[in-house]
Amino acid sequence: MNHVSDYFVIDGHCDVLYQLEQDEGQRSLRERPEGQVDLKRLQEGQVAAQFFALYGGEPNRLMLAQSSALKQIKLLYRELKTNPELVLAGSREDVLKARNEGKIAAVLSLEGGEPLGDDPGLLEIFYRLGVRALGLTWHERNLLASGVGDRESGGGLTALGRMAVRMAQELKILLDVSHLSKRSFWDLIDLAQGPIIASHSSAYALCPHPRNLTDDQARALAQTGGVIGVNFNSPFLRSQGRAELADVVNHIDYLVQLVGPEHVGIGSDFDGIPAGPRGLEGPHRFPDLALALKERGYEDKDISNIMGANFLRVLP
User: Fold this and answer.
1) Nearest to 13 by CA among 316, 249, 233
2) What pLDDT is attached to residue 27?
3) Burial grade of 97 (CB within 10 A; 0-12, 13-18, 19 or more)
4) Which of 66, 73, 116, 224 is most buried when burial is the number of CB atoms within 10 A of its CB?
5) What stretches of the chain show up as alpha helix (H) in DSSP?
C-alpha cells in the first residue's frame, strides 16, 4: 500500500485574509464553507505553516493600499486571539515549535509593495507586525517595480525598489518574484543575495501564462537556493478547462527535473483563485497530492521537501 511517512505541509501562498477583509470581518477563519481555506481544512491537510498574503494592490492609492494591508493584519491578529491552535511565526524555529505543539504557524507575506508607497523604510514596521516575505508589486507597475501586467514601460526595479530590496535583505525578509515582470525579475536576481522565492508560480514550458516561470528564470531562482511554489490556478496549469490533480503533479515533476527536488514547493493561491484543481479543492486534499507524488515514483524524502521542508529551509 502506498503511504507517505513523516512529512508536513508549508503552503507558500493563500489569499484568505483578503477575503476576510472583503467580508468586513464578519467571517471567521475557523470554518468557512463558502471559501477554500479555514483552520479545519488546514489541520486535515497536515499544514504546519501557511503563508498568508496581505494584498494591497492599489498602485496609485497609497492610503487605500496601506489601510487594506493593515486591516488584514488586524484580522489575522483577531484570529490568533480566538484560535489558540494558530500562532504567528517569524522564523524557522517558530514554525518548528508550532509543529511540535500541534499548532499551525501563520507567516505573513506582503503581496505587492504598494503599502510602502515612496518610503521603503516602512518595511521595518511591517516586519515588526510579522511580515517575512515581500513581493515588490502586484501585476502592474508601482513605485518599486514593474509587474507582469505592465506591458507599456518595459521597466524593471526602480531606485526605490532597489532600496526596498536592500531593506528586506537587512531584515531577512524573503523576496518573492511571483508577480514581477521579466526585467524586474532579472534586476532582482542580479541585486539580491540569498534565497529568492516564487511563492505561487508554475512552469511556463507546460503552460505559457505570463505569471509562470520560464526555464531560465527557474534555473536562476534555484541558483539562489530558493523555492518555486507551484500555483494551483487552472490557467497557470493548463491552457483550457479546469485543472486536475495530475496537472499539479506534472508541473512539480517538470520543475523537479529542471532544478531538483530541493527547489520546488507548493503555493496553492487558495482563496485567490475561482476553484482548486479537481482533487485539490482545498488544503484538506494536500495528503492526496503527497500520495500522487508517491505514485509518480518520488521517494519520501523528496516528497517531504516538496510538501514543506523546502519552504521551511528558506525561512530566517
Assistant:
1) 233
2) 86
3) middle
4) 116
5) 16-22, 39-44, 62-82, 92-100, 123-128, 159-171, 182-191, 215-223, 234-237, 245-259, 286-295, 300-304, 310-314
In a domain, 303, yes or no: yes
The kind and range of the H/E element at 227 are strand 227-230
120 closest CA partner among 179, 57, 171: 171
**4 within a domain of the structure (yes/no):** no
- Domain containing residue 294: 9-314
**Which set of grid coordinates corresponds to residue 133?**
516575505
The CATH number of whichever domain residue 57 belongs to comes to 3.20.20.140
* Residue 279, burial from CB neighbour count under 10 angstroms (0-12, 13-18, 19+): middle
> How many domains are there within the chain?
1
Mean pLDDT per segment of 10 residues, for the chain of length 316 residues? Answer: 82 98 88 96 98 80 87 97 98 98 98 95 98 95 94 88 98 98 98 98 98 99 99 98 99 99 99 98 98 98 98 98
Indicate whether 155 belongs to any domain: yes
Q: Does 1 reside within a domain?
A: no
Dihedral sign (CA 10, 16, 18, 21): negative
AA letter at 111: E
Q: What is the pTM of this model?
A: 0.97
Max distance between CA atoms of the chain, in angstroms, equals 57
**For the chain, what's the residue count?**
316
